[in-house]
Structure formats: C-alpha cells, structure tokens
Amino acid sequence: GLIERKAAGGALLRPAGVEALVSLIDLLPTLANLGGVPDKDRWVFQGKDLTPILENPEAEVQNFVHFTYED
After folding, report:
1. pTM value?
2. Along the chain (71 residues), what's the average pLDDT of each consecutive run of 10 residues?
C-alpha cells in the first residue's frame, strides 16, 4: 500500500513528483536517516540522503546520477 505520514503540525503529506536527480542507490542512506540508525558515519553509503527533498520538494542533493547499462 501507499505510505502517508503526517508532517509537523499534522498536515498529511501526499506523494508528489520532483525534479531532483535521484537513484535507487539513494534509498539506503535515506532510510537509515529516517529510521534513526545510530552512528551512520561508520557505514559507507554510496548514495545520497534524500530527506532534504522530502522536507522541500525544490531541494537538490546531487548534480548528476551515474547510470550504466550492459547488454
């Protein structure tokens, strides 16, 4: 199902599209931050934490996304 959460102040957050560059590799550091993983600095995450985009849909966290494809 769809996950909806309440923002500070009780407003319901709804899914929305953003223009920010993101990739699946960014999910782990984002979930670690949202889940409150202790001592995140000891882990080596290759992606970027996307929580700034969740807080502000206009935010940017990276200038490029590296993509490869092998057939």
Report:
1. 0.69
2. 54 75 91 87 86 88 87 80
Asked if residues 29 and 16 have their Cβ atoms less than 8 Å apart, the reply is no
DSSP assignment of 8-57, as one string? Answer: TTSPBP------S---GGGHHHHHHHHTT-TTGGGS---S---HHHHH-T
pLDDT digits (tens, 9 = 90+) for 19-36: 889 999 999 999 998 888
| Site of tokens 């502000």 | 56
> CB neighbours of 33 closer than 8 A, spacing ≥ 6?
40, 49, 51
